[in-house]
Automatic annotation (TrEMBL):
Residues 9-137 form the 1-deoxy-D-xylulose 5-phosphate reductoisomerase N-terminal domain. InterPro entries: DXP_reductoisomerase, DXP_reductoisomerase_C, DXP_reductoisomerase_N, DXPR_C, DXPR_C_sf, NAD(P)-bd_dom_sf. Its cofactor is Mg(2+); Mn(2+). It comes from Variovorax humicola. 1-deoxy-D-xylulose 5-phosphate binds at K130, S156, E157, S184, H207, S220, N225, K226, E229. Coiled coil: none annotated. Pathway: Isoprenoid biosynthesis; isopentenyl diphosphate biosynthesis via DXP pathway; isopentenyl diphosphate from 1-deoxy-D-xylulose 5-phosphate: step 1/6. This is 1-deoxy-D-xylulose 5-phosphate reductoisomerase. Mn(2+) binds at D155, E157, E229. Catalyzes the NADPH-dependent rearrangement and reduction of 1-deoxy-D-xylulose-5-phosphate (DXP) to 2-C-methyl-D-erythritol 4-phosphate (MEP). The keyword Magnesium applies.
Length: 396
């Protein structure tokens, strides 16, 4: 480690799957990292336990009643963490002058405001929250540039691409032909398409390789996760939509690849464990222990690859369509998908109708190029209204 001072970290969404993995990596390096603030929406006891362990200055909760419970429990346990819940609390802990790095691990568009706050304040912004960049698009990247933030991809595929690329960003455009995102194909890669209507939330959340939050798990099952990742890659690496390609690789040992102009291809490999990209994002350009198991090539079975089946995964192609349409279309697609997934998880919508909700919403909402966060949020609200109406019409 070069500097003596510890890296002061805010973890947004600390009670979720990425949040827990982040705190696991941080705990392995008490000499390098200290936790400044944590945030959650509803899991009071989990956040309380994290406060006891990491002693953050602040704990922010999205819901006021949960924040009140947390404050009471912290007091009972003699812990001095200050609880925040007011509008702007997440933005405050993401942009505080004492913070060096922010793990953006809130799920959904709700994470966009805090991401922009961290970017504006020039933080090391570790981006797991892919919906934020899918919604924010050009505005997100402009805010990162203008704020002088250091944007570190955490999504495993994008971390892989980042690790494959030359350190000098100014050479990316001339050297890279395209990037190839790997996809697991989810739990229904081999399932008879005629049976997709009967799928339960429990089945959809049973990802073959990763234990993740419920929303991203459903997205993996529809391959909308890969659609969001195509859009994410376009913005992170300044690519055209055509320069982002997808291949199914069920074992998820290769996390993604870069094809260079001279036909050389560089891939990043590892066991499927999010602590690897998280450790990379926290320490880059240094490399620190993540706790992940190491690859053992002798015991690996075959690494296989196949094309995504369009009939089974119609949502995947919406990524390229949305990227070629009016700016703002990706925000509409994201909002529609968040609403549809929520309806499916609440058993109000069949799994195989998520795509129909997304299509109907895209047809109903005509965005004009959003130039500000306020305009993006207004578009998000309009798209959610249209998606809710579509979900009701298509209800199970
Ligand atoms: N899990 C993974 O392996 C990967 C995840 N990602 C991305 O990272 C992000 C987080 O995913 P994951 O950790 O799986 O999700 P989880 O559902 O496990 O966790 C989400 C976190 O966000 C909090 N949260 C939920 N809604 C809000 C809100 N409205 N305002 C503030 N906080 C909120 C939750 O609080 P509470 O728990 O208290 O309700 C929780 O801490 C997603 O964007 C996902 O796509 C990317 C790659 C891999
Ligand atoms: C770990 C991670 O980054 C997830 O996005 C995961 O890779 C999901 O994979 P699939 O969407 O390919 O199933
Ligand atoms: Mn991913």
């Amino acid at each position: 480690m070069n500097e003596e001072r510890k890296l002061c970290v805010t973890v947004l969404g600390s009670t979720g799957s990425i949040g827990l993995s982040t705190l696991d990596v941080i705990s392995r390096h008490p000499e390098r990292f200290e936790v400044f603030a944590l945030s959650a929406a509803t899991k009071v006891d989990e956040l309380l336990a994290q406060c006891a362990r990491h002693k953050p200055r602040y704990a922010a909760m999205a819901s006021a009643p949960h924040a009140a419970q947390l404050a009471e429990k912290l007091k009972q346990n003699g812990l001095r963490t200050t609880v925040l819940t007011a509008h702007g609390a997440m933005e405050m802990i993401a942009s505080h002058e004492e913070v060096d790095a922010v793990m953006a691990a809130i799920v959904g568009a709700a994470g966009l405001g805090p991401c922009l706050a961290a970017a504006r304040a020039g933080k090391r912004l570790m981006l797991a929250n892919k919906e934020a960049i899918v919604v924010g698009g050009e505005l997100f990247m402009r805010t990162v540039r203008d704020g002088g933030a250091n944007l570190m991809p955490i999504d495993s595929e994008h971390s892989a691409i980042f690790q494959c690329l030359p350190e000098d960003r100014s050479t990316w455009a001339e050297r890279v032909d395209h990037v190839l995102l790997t996809a697991s194909g989810g739990p229904f890669r081999l399932r008879d398409p005629k049976t997709l209507g009967a799928i339960t939330p429990e089945e959809a959340c049973a990802h073959p390789n990763f234990s993740m939050g419920r929303k991203i798990s459903v997205d993996s099952a529809t391959m909308m996760n890969k659609a969001l990742e195509v859009i994410e890659a376009k913005w992170l690496f300044d690519l055209t939509p055509e320069q982002v390609k997808v291949v199914i690789h069920p074992q998820q040992i290769i996390h993604s690849m870069v094809q260079f102009q001279d036909s050389s291809m560089i891939a990043q490999l590892g066991t499927p464990d999010m602590r690897v990209p998280i450790a990379c994002g926290l320490a880059w350009p240094e490399r620190i222990a993540s706790g992940a198991e190491r690859l053992d090539f002798a015991s690996l079975s075959a690494l296989t690859f196949e094309e995504a089946d369009v009939a089974r995964f119609p949502g995947l192609h919406l990524a390229w369509q949305a990227l070629r349409a009016v700016p703002g279309t990706t925000a509409v697609l994201n909002a529609a998908n968040e609403v549809a997934v929520e309806a499916f998880l609440a058993r109000r919508l069949r799994f195989d109708r998520i795509h129909a909700v997304n299509l109907e919403t895209l047809a109903a909402v005509a965005p004009s190029k959003p130039g500000s966060l306020a305009e993006l949020l207004a578009l998000d609200i309009e798209a959610r209204a249209a998606a809710n109406a579509a979900a009701l019409r298509l209800a199970a």
